[in-house]
Amino acid sequence: QLQLVESGGGLVQAGGSLRLSCVASEFTLDNYAVGWFRQAPAEKAYEGVSCISDSGEYYADSVEGRFTISRGNTKNTVYLDISDLRPEDSAKYYCAALIRPRVGYVCYLGVAPYDYWGRGTEVTVSS
After folding, report:
1. Whether the Cβ atoms of residue 29 and residue 94 lie closer than 8 Å to each other
2. 5 Cβ contact partners less than 8 Å away, ≥ 6 residues apart
3. Low-confidence residues of the chain: pLDDT under 50
4. Residue 28: CA atoms inside 13 Å, Cβ hemisphere, count?
5. End-to-end Cα spacing for the chain
6. Could you tell me which residues are beta bridge partners of residue 105?
7. d(CA 111, CA 4)
């Protein structure tokens, strides 16, 4: 059974940067589409911010240009690099994986397709 663990969150000043990590229990995430989602403190909905599949990388309009998703040197890891952090980026960030998407799958920034979820890592951005 695939397990995902997020790390890298913390308290950061506005304008700073973070690298969030998502580590899978199996050796590689190449057989998965992986997405990053966030839930703001006062909100119940999950906002999809980025995802990666064999068709490329995709970003929500709210984060494009500041967030970068990538696969690590060890392919059980996916990163989310965040720059120019803003207070509105404060949220609990989750990674999620979709097993064996079709070739050319354009990953979706909604929660429904994803099979496995981590428990999240908290990001707090101070003014």
Report:
1. no
2. 22, 23, 118, 119
3. none
4. 3
5. 40
6. none
7. 15
